[in-house]
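We store chain and fold; example below:
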Amino acid sequence: MTICAKEFENKYLADYAMKSCLSRGRTHKEKEHPYRGCYQRDRDRIIHSAAFRRLEYKTQVFVNHEGDYYRTRLTHTLEVSQIARTIASILRLNTDLVEAIALAHDLGHTPFGHSGEEVLDDLMADSGGFNHNLQGLRIVDVLEERYPDFSGLNLSWEVREGIVKHSSFHDRSPEGGDFDYKMPSLETQVVDIADEIAYNNHDLDDGLTSGLLEESGLRKKKLWSLAERGVRQQYGKLKPQIRKYQIIRAMIDTQVTDLIEETKSRIKKAGVKSVEDCRGLEYKLVSFSKEMESVRLPLKDYLMDSLYHHYRVVRMSIKAKRFIQELFEVYLNNPQQLPREQADKIKYGEDKKRVICDYIAGMTDRYALDEYKKLFDPYEKV
């Protein structure tokens, strides 16, 4: 017998979980599916979007041409989704909503990682700036073109909230707008921390593989050293690659376990009984314990100093900013160099800077580099 989303959610989800039958709905009214919930449909719309596919060739830390091993925005997004679903299922939250938010949380990212966002924000300073959360919302609300009756993907309010209110160590959430609750849903909070867990631990993997990080430095950090000791006790001597993988795996497991237990305790202590109870708090319920935060912080600082501020990464970042700035200025000075679709938007009254910003933000690393060569290399075919 087939069980519909509403029956499943009412039977298995916690009182404080977001249920699809209580959704604030879509901007454009649609007939809902008889057995697929709105968040399941949102997830699938995100997966089939052009913006999601482009994440395959957008930078996480290392620019795409640096090597095939390194994380991209797409592989990072899948890792976030996997971690978030695990946490949400144990907390009896809505895993469909969590998955949809996780898969959409990086849609608004530019090519070349955070350096691309920074330079576009500078270039758009007098035209509303640039924030990748708001850009993600703009993508799913306006820029994606798949349906005859409306622009965008027409996602449910709760997924759109999760995109806008996403915040982590690397990301800031804009204030105000239509999503101005004190706290976002617990499902959004889970994705925020899953993003940080994935980001930090998998950047360690990429940093070690690249040679920019060394295990000797990581052994001075308690979280790494405890995981390494546990792996050694369980398996003895291992090949370096397997040892590295098992240590990072153990670190993720330790953090996820701590997060789940601490969050359960905070939910019980707060006495929340509904989604609105969670939204009305002055603090987030999904959190690590103080003890875990104390061992995570030195590792985050080490990543910042030794990886994100490594001279090779800084060189890549500055070079990427230069590419984007020069592309932006070329298009701004002569919009006729834009593809016809973008040029027509300007011709028919859309803001020139915002059209150019949308176009560049949607580029993959590879496409941006190819476009740069076409515009600046005299021997490159245009």
The chain has a mean pLDDT of 91. The chain has 18 helices and no strands. The radius of gyration is 22 Å. The longest helix spans residues 240-270.
